[in-house]
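Table S5 (text form). Sequence records supplied for joint modeling of the two-component complex.
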Amino acid sequence: MKMMLMRMVAVVLLFLLSGCWDNKDINHRSLPIAMGVSYNQGSYTIYLDIPSVTEDEEKIQIISDHGDSINEVIDHISMNMESQVDLLHLKVILVDKAFAKHGLSEGIASIIRSRYIAPKTMFVICDEPLDHFFQHIDASSTDDGTAIYDYFQKNAGWSPDIAYTPTWRIFRSIHSYTNDVVIPMIKSGDSTVIKSTGSAIMKNGKMVGKLTNEETLLYNVFNGVNTQGKIEVMGHATVQIVSSRIGNRSSLEQDQPRLRSTVHLKITVMDTRGNPSMVLIKKELQELVTREFMLLFQKVQKAGADVFGLGQHFRDDLTRPQLARWRTDYLPNMKVDLHVKTIVRNTGNLKARK
Amino acid sequence: MLKNLQVPIVFIITHMGLIFFLYPTDLIASSKETQWVPIFTGFLFQLAIMAVYLKGIRLFGNENIIHVLMKKSRWLAWATLLPVLLHLGIIAVLTVRIYAEIISIIFLSNTPLWILMCLLITIPTYIVMHGGVRGLMRTGLLLSLLFLISILFVLAYAFQNIDPRYALPLLPDDPKDFSFFVHPSYYKCLFAFSGCFLFLGFVPPYVAYKPKTVFIASLLLLPLFLMAVYIPILTLGEETARQLEFPFIFTIDTIEIDWLMFDRVTMFLVLSLLAFIMLFISLVFWLLTNIFRHSIKDLKPKILVPLVSVLTFGVCLFIPDLETTEEFLQWETILLGYVSIVTPLVVLFAGRHHFKQMKREIK
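The corresponding structure-token record, covering 717 residues in total, follows.
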């Protein structure tokens, strides 16, 4: 009798303690893969890209609505849909340029606070009106609509001239004194679904400038992202960067920060024109990278955004209140000496002139 | 072999449950740079009180604090054990309430709070009622076998996005670096250091252990204390980590593992740590009932344990929000300080006296 009672209690507990409270089955949830947020004078328009896979067809569904806050719009969409919108598996957030220029800090804060959206979610700026972009995606998608997700996956369609910026890095950029980010920019392509148009320089969550795809590649190399990027050298050759390593030495001379950086590049030769010597290729590559980088640095310096995290090198030299003024007082005066050292690891299947 | 390790393992894993949630938040709130200074201070505090406590316990021979104190003087026993009893009661309530809220914030946001508190109380009650302290220790061993591997895996991956330069400057050069001593949050995070060493004095003669192994176990905790604070700081920077409610858990959320089929490794960590917290709660329940039975009234555990858990649950229901809970925790630090300084000292003196008495009796 007692044993029986215990068993019954155990069975009741099994149901009570399972944690499946108010659970909604997966077929009653909509799992958007991308969310578009456009901003216009205090009101948000949200687009959700929901892949719907059934037995006989794979298609995507684009839903949009507008309101005064992101959460309000999502609730509104959820209300009007037959299933509940669940943002747990959201992979990409697209915002339009107007929103990026206005400043993302509030949007990011509500994402971080909500705990429904993972901090790993990719952040992307759309270089054209969002409605046009989503119409294009809807029209040109032939598969299950995950193109936009695959485009930014390191083990799928990502390539080294695209910036890679999860939401938490932008959150860090908003609060950190010495770290800013760049966000990839895309628009709908002509023959492909998506086309990269470079990346946006963000300062404290606000868009202040733009980098081209080539500059983004250099940015990735300098930040130590393991790239396999290809660089065209002065019409003589195309080389591939197989690995890059940076050594930095910082010093502070009368409130002027100086950084001596040495970039070690390991390259392989992809193709050559007019049989140039390896010495020439190396020399030209070094000149090219140095020049391009200095231009890039000046651009970033002018925008006042520390996208390379250069202030990180001076954390030991500056006090905390000084660091808080890093972007305004120190970064504009900063000097960078860049040295590029290259090693040609191999020249492929063909021998090359020494 | 494994039997001797039961107590040190329970010591480690109950601390692990406490380290990764509130402690980083409070520590980061209390100091702006060179966070290792407050961490080491807290750690040395833990080592000091444990050294005194274990020394005293060793002098008891194979006897329990309650027996020795009761034999010596009832008055002394009351003065020592009553604050401990009160402290444990408050700890039980606050832990259940805070961790229910943590579960709700991190992953079960639709589940009503009372059912989460029920979960956090029912399982420890069951462990204490059926296993007693021996069962509890065995459960600890089992939990560590089940969960330590996944925790270590996640902790190893937590270094994925770090930037070591965020730790700079390394050396404190400003008197402000020691201002954590006057910051109330710092005393709140001492809970992670001295929250659960008390049980060591109450488990003999039920479970035997060597004091040396516990001491080694507490040394093993040092890297965990450092990681819980430094991983968020190195990944996000101090200014950003300060904004977050649970910086360590957030940092774990940023880990990307391409080859793993699970998207959110945070779940492995959080669920394992919750199992450890349940063990901690059962330990507190056991201590409460044990002290009550031997010093106030010897009620049957079958009546007393459910009584304690129902009482805890009832009080938990009356706490309206997380802020109030943290305020209570702030006030509790006074009692915590008293208990963790006075109890080891009393135990040491009583131990000395007891040891001399035993020697005389043998002669």
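Note: Chain A has two domains: 25-211, 216-349.
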